[in-house]
Structure formats: C-alpha cells, structure tokens
Amino acid sequence: MHRQGMKFKAKVCSKIILVDTDVPLPTSQTLIKTMASSSRLPRFCSCSGQDCFRLVGLKGFCVCSLNDIIVGTVRTRVEVQGMAEWKVTITNNCKCAQHKLTLSCEGFQSRETEDPNIFQKQGNNCLVIDGNALNGFASVSFTYAWDPPFIMFPSGSIVDPC
Questions:
Q1: Looking at the predicted structure, is the pLDDT value of residue 129 above 60?
Q2: Which of these, 6, 98, 97, 99, lies nearest to 58 by C-alpha position?
Q3: For residues 140 and 73, is the Cβ–Cβ distance under 8 A?
Q4: Residue 120 CA to chain centroid, in angstroms?
Q5: Taking the model in full, what pTM does it have?
Q6: Which residue among 2, 69, 88, 130 is least crowded, i.e. fewest CB within 10 A of its CB?
Q7: H/E run at residue 154
Q8: Which of 95, 91, 99 is nearest to 53 (CA)?
Q9: Looking at the domain that runs over 68-159, which CATH code has it been given?
Q10: What InterPro entries does the entry give (predicted)?
Q11: Does 47 score more than 70 pLDDT?
Q12: Beta strand pairing call for 44-45 and 17-18
C-alpha cells in the first residue's frame, strides 16, 4: 500500500506503540518513513494520535495516544491517620484499549494501602491495573491518603489495535 510516497506493510499498524512527543511534523514524517522501510517492526512511533493517522492515512492505524488517558483527582472528605483521602480516576478517552499503562508518581506515598492489582509503585512510575488493558472509554479508580495530593500524569502505554 502506498500513501504519501511511503510503503507500509499491513502488519506494521498493529505493532506500533505510540509515545507522546513534541517532534515537529516534518521530523515525525521522516521517522515514520524510516521505521516503515525498516526490516524489523518498530517499537515506538515518534508522533502522537491524530498526527500519525494523518501522516500515514491508514484506516486502523494507531489513533490513540497518551493524550487520550485522563487522570482526575478529587478529595473524598475522608481522613486517614490525619491525611486527606484522594480518589484518582484514570479514563481511557479513546476507542482503542491501552495496556501496560503507567503514571508518573515520583515520591508517591500513602497512609492507606492501594490494591496492587489497580495501582503498583515501580520506581518513579506506577503500573495501572497490573499492566492489563484499560478498554476504550473505560475507567479505573483507586484512593490514597496524603496531603498535599500528588500530581500524576500518564507516562507510558501500549495502544492495542482497534
């Protein structure tokens, strides 16, 4: 299949993992062209969501990115050992599932124990739902107790084909 002068193999679409970057469009296009002509399948795509879709113009290409993962934090009005409790809700705001989802959580602490199947600290990142898929438009939540609240944002994921 040819699109904008690039040759792609169909199996490339289902193997690309998107990472959120601010690479300028011409650079992204060059990197995608280089990756697509490579004999081995790429692990990372250097553009995000709609830019990748627009560049290659392939239906079914990975159109989701970390920008589609929304992390919301609200106070629950509960106190645990003198610390405010916070409810964190992680939502996949795209139709494609994303797995091995991690959040940045440097310095994360809590006075209550989080379910390790939902939220597991691994160095400066935290693994969400034990690395299993967060389906499209689905959410998962957990609570922790600390003050002030931690600012967490998506740091990595693998986008499943959709």
A1: yes
A2: 6
A3: no
A4: 16
A5: 0.64
A6: 2
A7: strand 154-159
A8: 95
A9: 2.60.40
A10: TPD1
A11: no
A12: parallel
**What does the pLDDT average to over 122-145?**
97
Give me 139's structure tokens.
Answer: 């959410």
Please provide residue 125's backbone torsions phi and psi, each rounded to the nearest 5 degrees.
Answer: -120, 160
Domain boundaries, the chain: 2-56, 68-159
Q: Are 107 and 91 in contact (CB under 8 A)?
A: no
Kindly report the average pLDDT of the chain as a whole number: 73
For residues 147 and 109, is the Cβ–Cβ distance under 8 A? no
Sign of the alpha-carbon dihedral angle for 139, 68, 2, 31 = negative
Q: Which amino acid is at 5?
A: G
The CA R_g of the chain, rounded to the nearest whole Å, is 18
Q: How many CB atoms lie within 10 A of CB 30?
A: 13
Amino acid at 48: S
